Amino acid sequence: MQHLVDTNNFSEEQIAQLLHDAKTFKANRPSQLLRDKLLITLFFEASTRTRSSFEVAAKRLGAAVVHLDPSKSSSSKGESLEDTFANLCAMEPDGVIIRHSENETPQMLADMQMTSVINAGAGNYAHPTQALLDLFTLVEYFDGDIKGKTIAIVGDIVSSRVASSGIRLFTRMGMNVILVAPKPFMPQSDLPQYENLDDILDKVDVIMSLRAQLERHDTPHFDDYDEYAKHYCIDHKRLGDRNILVLHPGPVMRNIDISDEMLDDPRCKVLEQVKNGVYMRMAILKLLLLDS
Ligand code: CP
Q1: How many Å apart are CA 248 and CA 114, to the nearest integer?
Q2: What pLDDT band is residue 221 in, cutting at 50, 70 and 90?
Q3: How far is 216 from 256, CA to CA, in rounded Å?
Q4: 3-state secondary structure of 129
Q5: From residue 275, how far is each of 78, 170, 270, 281 by CA, in Å?
Q6: Structure confidence at residue 163 as a pLDDT band (50, 70, 90)
Q7: Which of 41, 136, 253, 260 has its CA 20 to 30 A from that of 71?
Q8: CA distances in angstroms from 58 to 36, 64, 154, 205, 273, listed in the order given
Q9: Which of these CATH numbers, 3.40.50.1370, 3.60.10.10, 3.90.1150.10, 3.40.50.1100, describes 129-272?
Q10: Going by CA atoms, what residue is nearest to atom 4 of ligand 1?
Q11: Total Cβ atoms within 10 A of residue 38
Q12: Where exactly are the structural domains of the chain?
């Protein structure tokens, strides 16, 4: 039984297979490879993209999907997460896709060895399917040639599981990663760190902008996000005609993370990331449920 808690669960060969399968699924009509499979989604935090993308990916491959809404489940009567998970596993799904506020939850459930556990985002530690879909988007854009390319991750890095998983995966794939953030948003890291976004614009091939994750802040870091935007918003004035790919995992805070006009710019691939997310999650489900 293979789980996906973070991208380091996959070997180099498996990552290459995922990129190949995602590309194939994007080029060709999806098949019904998983028609006898059943997945359960269990999201303890809000999601637009990840939950619907997994559901679309599963259905495109012929799998059935059942969603349990924790707010309407017996969790609200005090049932523990372990008991909720064990009861769902008693129904013999082929996998449980979980999003949770605690970093350790997916590994804890995976260790129960009852079904394949797929991490759809946990705390600020890991969002492996986002990192893999971002890798797919980068590989596609650079025609496979990502080694030595430089990506700047900009924004609330310390709160971001997208950044955590992305940093681990992009460095493993040979990319240079640099961090750009005001001090309250900067994590402890050995990677190059910058406070001034304008200082790095001539050094990078890619900017990944991140939202300020207010729901993870104990106290407000900034009174005024318009002031923050003056320094960190990705806009036409700042980028000029530089050939920089602009990514964002969503949800985008318009005109704080990325300006309206930049979101419509061909250099900005936010919706392509979402499209690629379906194909990468199809590849991940195939690998976990069929090939492992
Ligand atoms: N990128 C991402 O995780 O988006 P959602 O929170 O909408 O799933």
Answers
A1: 34
A2: confident
A3: 18
A4: helix
A5: 38, 20, 9, 10
A6: very high
A7: 253
A8: 11, 7, 32, 33, 18
A9: 3.40.50.1370
A10: 49
A11: 17
A12: 7-126+274-291, 129-272
Residues whose beta carbon lies within 6 Å of some atom of ligand 1: 47-50, 121, 130, 249-251
- Contact at 8 Å (CB) between 234 and 207? yes
Nearest Cα neighbor of 66 from 36, 93, 104 is 93
Length of the chain: 292
> Rounded to whole angstroms, how far apart are CA atoms 232 and 237?
12
In this structure, what DSSP letter does residue 290 have? I
Place of tokens 């194909």: 279
**Mutate which of 50, 129, 160, 281 to test ligand 1's pocket (most atoms within 8 Å of Cβ)?**
50
Mutate to test the pocket of ligand 1, among 49, 209, 216 (most ligand atoms within 8 A of CB): 49
In angstroms, rounded to a whole number, what is the distance separating the alpha carbons of residues 264 and 19? 27
- H/E run at residue 41: strand 38-43
Distance CA 72, CA 74 (A): 7
